[in-house]
């Protein structure tokens, strides 16, 4: 299958009183039709800004996409007019946001918030849109959908609100669904239900998906391929099984080392990554992970390594091999 989405050298910056924040620094990747791509990394690494840049949701000012291309269905989304991108956003590309309580309008019923997109993008009548909204609420597992469609967001639990957000995202049958940490605010059992629901819906609808998270445990059972981000750069990219079996970047190794494992007879003590991420206003000239890296060499301080292929579908941005020096 061909690439549905192709991102080339995307750069996004925020112009603040303190200086220019280099939030996304030249990232490139593709998403194939029907594929699930996981994007992982700690808070502030550019995951959310990177995907919000794709559909031009960066607040301007202070934010601005300063370079790159985003090709989707034969068009560069960054060059579309405001009206054209509105036709894509919510229709061909949908997004589920991190916190459903702040994403849903508290003074509109759940039904109205779903039917609005159906009327706008698909030209449905009010009655058609209402029937479709009830179908969608049933699809995402909300009991008594015929009655609950008239309820307001505060009348739903956190897990149910997230299901409503998923229903809104799926309403126009998008080609690509972007999920920005949709399970972060939920407890573990509800997280598992939401992940299972998304996997089931993806199989039924056949859409592609970008799932953003800082939880590598969630990605393991959901994604086909994983991108690891750090300080606005992609530092590693690999098929999901390859990434867990053979991590090649020190940061990825650190992230996996901080995860509890169930497959070890004598579990090792969880490891933390020492230090803090670099200041995005004043990025170092070399590798952004240099100050925290246990494998660093002198070259890392002066030169930021490019993302290079090290195996089938496996890319890494590092001057050092974990088994010895490459440079």
Explain the overall architecture.
Helix 4 packs across helix 5 and helix 7 packs parallel to helix 8. The longest helix has 18 residues. By secondary structure, this protein is α/β, with parallel strands linked by helices. 32% of the residues lie in helices and 26% in strands.
Keywords:
single chain; 327 residues; alpha/beta; four-stranded antiparallel β-sheet; 14 strands; 32% helix
Question: What's the layout of helices and strands?
Answer:
Blueprint: E1 3-16, E2 19-32, E3 36-40, H1 47-54, E4 63-72, E5 75-76, H2 82-88, E6 93-96, H3 100-103, H4 110-122, H5 126-139, H6 145-148, H7 158-170, E7 176-180, H8 188-205, E8 208-213, H9 216-220, E9 225-230, E10 233-239, H10 240-245, H11 250-257, H12 298-302, E11 308-311, E12 314-316, E13 320-321, E14 324-325
Parallel strand pairs: 3-8, 3-9, 6-7, 7-8
Antiparallel strand pairs: 1-2, 1-4, 4-5, 9-10, 10-12, 11-12, 13-14
Helix pairs in contact: 4-5, 5-7, 7-8
| Radius of gyration computed on alpha carbons | 21 Å
**Shape call:** globular
Uncertain runs? none
- Measured by DSSP, the beta-strand proportion falls in 25-35%
Give the distance, in angstroms, between the N- and C-terminal Cα atoms.
Answer: 36 Å
How would you classify the helix and strand content by structural class?
alpha/beta
Query: How many strand segments?
Result: 14
Q: Can you count the helices?
A: 12
Major pleated sheet = 8 strands, mixed
Strand order of the largest sheet: 6-7-8-3-9-10-12-11
Average pLDDT = 87
Helical content stands at 25-40%
Question: What order do the SSEs take from the amino end to the carboxyl end, as H and E?
Answer: EEEHEEHEHHHHHEHEHEEHHHEEEE
């Amino acid at each position: 299958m061909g690439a549905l989405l192709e991102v080339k050298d995307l750069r996004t910056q925020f112009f603040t009183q303190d200086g220019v924040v280099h939030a996304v620094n030249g990232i490139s990747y593709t998403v194939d039709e029907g594929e699930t791509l996981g994007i992982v990394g700690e808070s502030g690494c550019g995951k959310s800004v990177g995907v919000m840049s794709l559909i031009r949701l960066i607040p301007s000012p202070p934010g601005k996409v300063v370079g790159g291309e985003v090709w989707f269905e034969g068009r560069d989304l960054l060059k579309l007019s405001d009206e054209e991108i509105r036709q894509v956003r919510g229709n061909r590309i949908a997004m589920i946001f991190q916190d459903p309580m702040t994403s849903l309008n508290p003074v509109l019923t759940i039904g109205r918030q779903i039917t609005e997109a159906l009327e706008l993008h698909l030209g449905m009548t009010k009655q058609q849109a209402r029937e479709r909204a009830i179908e969608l609420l049933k699809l995402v597992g909300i009991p008594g959908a015929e009655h609950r469609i008239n309820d307001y967001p505060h009348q739903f639990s956190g897990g149910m609100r997230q299901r409503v957000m998923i229903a809104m995202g799926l309403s126009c049958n998008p080609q690509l669904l972007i999920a920005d940490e949709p399970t972060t605010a939920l407890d573990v059992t509800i997280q598992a239900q939401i992940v299972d629901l998304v996997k089931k819906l993806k199989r039924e609808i056949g859409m592609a998906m970008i799932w953003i998270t800082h939880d590598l445990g969630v990605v393991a059972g959901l994604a086909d391929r994983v991108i690891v981000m750090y300080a606005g750069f992609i530092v590693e990219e690999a098929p999901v099984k390859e990434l867990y079996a053979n991590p090649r970047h020190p940061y990825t190794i650190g992230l996996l080392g901080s995860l509890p494992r169930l497959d070890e007879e004598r579990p090792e003590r969880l490891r933390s990554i020492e230090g803090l991420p670099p200041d995005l206003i004043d990025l170092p000239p070399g590798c952004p992970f240099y100050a925290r890296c246990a494998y660093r060499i002198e070259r890392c301080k002066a030169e930021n390594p490019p993302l290079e292929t090290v195996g089938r579908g496996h890319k890494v941005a590092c001057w050092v091999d974990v088994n010895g020096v490459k440079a």
